[in-house]
Amino acid sequence: MLSNLKDQPADKILTLMQSFREDPRDEKLDLGVGVYKDASGHTPIMSAVKKAEAWLLESETTKSYTGLAGDPAYAAAMRSLVLADSVAADRVAAIATPGGTGAFRQGVDLIRTASPEATVWVSAPTWPNHLSILKTTGTPFVEYRYFDASTGHVDFDGMIADLDSAKEGDVVLLHGCCHNPTGANLTDDQWRQVADLLLRKKLVPMVDLAYQGFGDGLDADAQGTRILAETQPEMLIGASCSKNFGIYRERTGILFAIGDAAQTKTVQGNLNHLNRQNYSFPPDHGARLVSTILTDDALRAEWQAELEGMRTGMLDLRQQLADELRQRTNSDRFDFIAQHRGMFSRLGVDADKVETMRRDHGVYMVGDSRMNIAGLNADTVPILAAAIAKTCG
Ligand code: LMR
């Protein structure tokens, strides 16, 4: 049996992580995988998370199974964080999932169950694992225009024109904020135009919200998702706590399915069934940390302040990098870096140049020229700017 197996295509982001670890050079810069790093290059455990863990260690009395959907307190706290009061609670079904990837995978499985003929529309480009999961599950998908490499911004006219040709019942995958890999995002007004188009064409939005709090703030980053929740009859949302709570390895995510209140019980039953089929009960430790923090005023304030520090730190790095590049290239070509939001920006240069920067300067970014801004600090920004200016200027 095992001899029938063929090699699987390597995941570009994870391969890059490995190559960086194996590079013996001291002067190397890891701008690959989307993990936040502080100024000393360390990925810290957030102080509110540490405190919640200490509290849990003392107070938790059992490690018996949770429900199939996970802890209801986690779902309620996350519903409030993501959706606020944009939608009535009785329209929302939810399951805890292993990370945002688990939420996306379960969402795709739900689409396959409910509407196998639906095509999923994905932004060009999107996170490579979206495509890999769609391929693995045999889900039909097509790309819509999204990123204009010549300006570094969203090609909104192209996006709307492409989505206008979707057929009724198709699913449109949208990044809630901090678009991965480009860093280019929709304005609130553009979200409203997308909402109108989805309604008119009877399309179902599926939002991937993996970076809430990393762009313009916790509420601002959820605004597009909430505009859709307010206006659409049906919607899926996969949210991740990996980045905004810094609990990557705890695998903490959630899938929301919003529909008619009369259907919520059936939808919830289907979500529970999906969890049961794929792994039974979802991981609980990270979810319990999140609900502990979100429901305790002091812990929540501490978490928000730390998250805000990470967010504004990334904005400062963006501005510093854009300024350095303006000076070194004597052009405004890279100004978009300061306007992008989230961990990533796509530089918009070809793979040969990315490879040259890796080989000659020890700069590791994904082959499509996505760089993780959170992998920089004030001292390494000039090093990166010099490498970019020399290679691409
Ligand atoms: C990324 O895009 O780098 C992160 O979402 C990590 C991952 O799993 O790919």
From TrEMBL:
Enzyme class: transferase
Pfam families tied to this protein: Aminotran_1_2 (PF00155)
Cofactor(s) the protein needs: pyridoxal 5'-phosphate
Key word Lipid biosynthesis present: no
Listed GO MF terms: identical protein binding; L-aspartate:2-oxoglutarate aminotransferase activity; L-tyrosine-2-oxoglutarate transaminase activity; pyridoxal phosphate binding
Aminotransferase class I/classII large domain segment(s): 27-388
Biological-process GO terms, alphabetical: L-phenylalanine biosynthetic process from chorismate via phenylpyruvate
Record's keyword annotation contains rRNA-binding: no
InterPro entries, A to Z: Aminotransferase_I/II_large (IPR004839), Asp_trans (IPR000796), PyrdxlP-dep_Trfase (IPR015424), PyrdxlP-dep_Trfase_major (IPR015421), PyrdxlP-dep_Trfase_small (IPR015422)
Organism superkingdom: Bacteria
Quaternary structure annotation from Swiss-Prot or TrEMBL: Homodimer.
PANTHER family: ASPARTATE AMINOTRANSFERASE, ASPARTATE AMINOTRANSFERASE, MITOCHONDRIAL
Name of the protein: Aromatic-amino-acid aminotransferase
